[in-house]
Amino acid sequence: MRSLLPALLAASLLQAQNPFSGNEKETDVGRGLFRILCAPCHGIGAKGGRGPDLTSGVYAAGSTDRDLFRVIANGVAGTEMPGYAARFGEDNIWRLIAYLRSVTVRQDPPPSGDKAAGEALFWGKGGCGACHRVGQRGSPAGPDLSRIGRKRSLAYLRQSLVDPNADLTAGFYKITARPPGAAAVTGVQRGYDNFSCQLMTMSGQFYSFPRDEKTTCDREFTSIMPSYRNLAEGELNNLLVYLLSLRGE
């Protein structure tokens, strides 16, 4: 059977349209497949996590049903995305695509703004580079934003800027350690268990503390990132235009 897969997939790719498009029953099967195998990376509602947001209807490797079939079947080289041809089979890949189409949302038009001004704000007044990395520049304390324009929608990015606690990235929680005879240290979680806690400060310093009767490690499920709701609307739009341009290219 495995030897027949390339021929079957090639034949399936000749189809111009998903045979299960608009079929509610088959779409629901696709939803189940997604939640089992895809949600750990792309989020329970396909809005992104470790992997990109899939609700925009615009994808890096192409946005037609045929493009989606190819990516799901073969995977994406150099990423965590594996190929599912052998595991899913042709029909289940089409069912999964039917589900993705069902959660696609209409995207707001991009804001009118100045990308260069947004980049200057990111690295300057906004202080974003103190926590985030873009390419080889910036700090590894917060999530890497090198491909954020490909992974997140405009609405998600706007909300994250004005309310950083709205949807926290797992593992980037705030930790404050209070060692005996020393000042408290606050930073972003790098490790946390019953015996120790590790954190990285905004200056990029890494600390590891034991959790015992002498040292407390308080973890808050909040972001250390400040809110940018007080930015002027024009500045916020400039920053959004810059973030949307970050596609790892």
What does this structure look like?
- The chain is of the alpha+beta class.
- The chain folds into three domains: 2-102, Orthogonal Bundle (Cytochrome Bc1 Complex, Chain D, domain 2), CATH 1.10.760.10; 115-168 and 226-245, Cytochrome Bc1 Complex, Chain D, domain 2 (Orthogonal Bundle), CATH 1.10.760.10; 174-220.
- It contains nine helices and seven strands.
- The strands form two sheets. A five-stranded antiparallel sheet has the order 6-5-4-3-7, with no helix packed on it. Strands 1-2 form a two-stranded antiparallel ribbon.
- Strand 5 (196-200) and strand 6 form a beta hairpin.
- It is globular, with a radius of gyration of 21 Å.
- The chain starts with a helix and ends with a helix.
- The model has no long low-confidence stretch (mean pLDDT 86).
Features:
249 residues; alpha+beta; Cytochrome Bc1 Complex, Chain D, domain 2; 3 domains; two-stranded antiparallel sheet; 9 helices; 36% helix
Helix-strand blueprint:
Blueprint: H1 5-13, H2 24-42, H3 65-74, H4 85-88, H5 90-102, H6 115-123, E1 133-134, E2 137-138, H7 148-151, H8 154-162, E3 174-178, E4 185-192, E5 196-200, E6 206-210, E7 216-220, H9 233-245
| Radius of gyration of CA atoms, rounded to a whole number | 21 Å
Strand order of the largest sheet: 6-5-4-3-7
List the secondary-structure elements in sequence, H or E. Answer: HHHHHHEEHHEEEEEH
Please state the second-level CATH architecture of the largest domain: Orthogonal Bundle
CATH homologous superfamily of the largest domain - what is it?
Answer: Cytochrome c-like domain
Structural class: alpha+beta
Helix content: 25-40%
Characterize the biggest β-sheet: 5 strands, antiparallel
Work out the number of β strands. Answer: 7
Tell me the count of domains: 3
Residue-averaged pLDDT: 86
CA distance, first residue to last residue = 38 Å
Range of strand content = 5-15%
Continuous helix count: 9
Oligomerization status of the protein chains: single chain
* Top CATH class of the largest domain: Mainly Alpha
